[in-house]
Amino acid sequence: MELINKSAKVLSELDVTFGSLVHEMNEKKLFDLTSRKGKAQGGFCESLPETGLPFIFMNMSNTDSDLVVFMHEMGHAIHDLLKSDQELYAYKQIPMESAELASMSMELFTMDRWNEFYKTEEELNRAKKDQLKGALMSLPYIMVIDQFQHWLYQHPNHTWEERTKKFGELKDRYDASIVDWKGYEEWKVKGWFYTLHIYEVPFYFVEYAISQLGAIQLYKNYKEDPEGTINKYKEALKLGSSKSLPEVYKTAGIELDFSSNKIAELMEFVAKELDLLSVSK
Length: 281
Ligand SMILES: [Zn+2]
Fold this sequence. Notes:
Elements: H1 2-14, H2 16-27, E1 31-32, E2 44-47, E3 54-57, H3 64-83, H4 89-92, H5 96-110, H6 121-154, H7 160-175, H8 185-190, H9 197-200, H10 206-224, H11 226-238, H12 245-251, H13 260-279
Parallel strand pairs: 1-3
Antiparallel strand pairs: 2-3
Helix pairs in contact: 1-2, 3-5, 3-11, 5-10, 6-7, 6-10, 6-13, 10-11, 10-13, 11-12
The protein binds zinc ion (ZN).
């Protein structure tokens, strides 16, 4: 399959072991990628307990998102492989903030090699811009969901109307200045229905913001020192949860830092990268 072969090539260029993992998983039929009738939606990576090998499930849609989802899930798979040497089972169980750091970073690390997948420079730049913009645009939505979840639990007797109103207010606060919802007001207040975290992992979703900020830091480091950054990324993932989250981030060469200074620095970096993509054809 084209997605598997090209991704194996791209990942091998980052690190030979990353590419070999794709080939091994493919040979052992550890990919379930194509859509079929009745197949559940979404994408995930699970570690198989007997062999320790990862298994990836997703629904290809023949759009750009196939590539991003695949690279994301391969980040999880690489994490599984690297932490498999941890002796204690508990150390292989990782918190979401480190799991998503592994996967979101892989989306960005591979970006400079997406020319494998795009025919023209223009298409490639468009895809890279979408990826970077997506990384930024996810942050306000995560803030909305985070505050919404806290409100839900602080107001256990709220009505359907109150809940809808609250979500609308939060959306207005965070994205009304950039999104014109005219004609789509119903979807503005109902959007949270699709966020499975609300039903499955109460109070979570913020881990994506934490990990995204980590992934942007790693990408920034990668731009300056590709090899050194990949080595540190590998060292951090090998730790599993044998070390605390701040130590895992530190080993990766980044900080668990949510200060406005740090966020401003990262946003400026992404804005500069977007500018470069707009200048080059
Ligand atoms: Zn993930």
